Structure formats: C-alpha cells, structure tokens
Amino acid sequence: MPHPIAFREDDPGLAELRAIALGFPDAFEKVSHGRPVFCAPKMFAIYGGSIKEPGPMRTVPNCVLVKVDDSDRAALEDDPRVFYPAYLGPYGWLGLDFSVAEVDWTEVAELVDTSFRLVASRRLIEQLDQR
Description:
The protein is 30% helix and 29% strand. With 131 residues, the protein is an alpha+beta fold.
C-alpha cells in the first residue's frame, strides 16, 4: 500500500525549496513516503518530516530535512528551529522547521548545498563548482 500524499503544492516553503534543490546538477524531484524528495541520484533534501520523541510520533509538515556535516552539527543542534528527524537522524540528517521563525532562504540554500555535496558524486560536485 503506498503512503498517502503528505503535502500540498501551496505548502509554505515548498516552492522556495523546490527552486533551490532543482538548481543542482542532475537534480530531480520524486515523491517518496508521501513527501517531495530531491535527489541527484541520491536524496539530498526532503520537504516535510517527523520527530520521534518519547510518546507518539509528531509530524513537522513544513520543513526541510538535510544531511549535515559533522563540523556543523553542534551549532545546528543548538538552534531552536532544528530537530532530529525520525528514521534519518541516525544517518546524519537534521530538520529545519519553517514554522518556528521567518525562513532565511540563503541559509536553507547553504544547508541544501552542504547536503548535496555530502551525497553527490565527484562529477556532480565538479559541475556545481564550475558554475
């Protein structure tokens, strides 16, 4: 049974995230587990996520999930907008909740750039650097 769609095209921040993510070399979007996922071909950004806290799982519908560099992790974890996403957190991913404060899209672009560089092939990173 497929996952139900967990987003709408007019969700806050989706269009902005889509514009950022699809600007990377060979990037494409697909729906996985009911959410927009941006890949090249490995996933590097996801719109929407959830938090598995003690108790029931909580959905964070308007956010971006990205893989983060270990050197940035401590600073990001201190940010009240940032959360440890269910399922992907143990693999180096964090979430940035768009509903906690006004979104700085330059910051989001930098987070997505880092995530892309952590999963993309050397060829795609070279293409990105040549731009």
